Amino acid sequence: MTLSPCPMCSRWESDADLRIAELEHSYVILNRDQFFPGYTLLFSKTHVTELFHLDRRVRGELMEEISRVAEALFATFRPDKINYELLGNMVPHMHWHLVPRFASEPLWPRPIWAEPHDDVLLAPEGYHRTIERIREALA
């Protein structure tokens, strides 16, 4: 039986237009669907599925990268809360959904997957502006 290639392992290349930053242990990209403004994905450079697969030092440094990106999202969007989702059931490659959340949004305070929604796609310049704002906050 041949396993299908991991979509997260190739995501840095396949979604090059959404790249925010390459960090020491992870890649950070803007999610194409911006129904939740600032919705960002952070995924490990190495193909692992669980936090305990990483040695303690790398795990700690990766958690610092996650915190750094969340802080940049908070500075950029000023949400009421940042959601951190680490699931991996559908894509078994360690990745976080970092989602700025606002009390004014229709799904607040429920999880982002509480009900379906139409994707909000931006024009290329909209993605570019959002990515640049996040990069500035990361600097």
TrEMBL record:
One of the record's GO molecular function terms? catalytic activity
- Which Gene3D superfamilies did the record assign? HIT-like
Query: Which PROSITE patterns does the UniProt entry name for this protein?
Result: HIT_2
**Boundaries of each HIT domain copy?**
7-108
Q: Where is this motif: Histidine triad motif?
A: 93-97
Q: Which GO terms describe its biological process?
A: nucleotide metabolic process
What's the protein called, per UniProt?
HIT family protein
Q: Which organism is it from?
A: Oryzomonas rubra
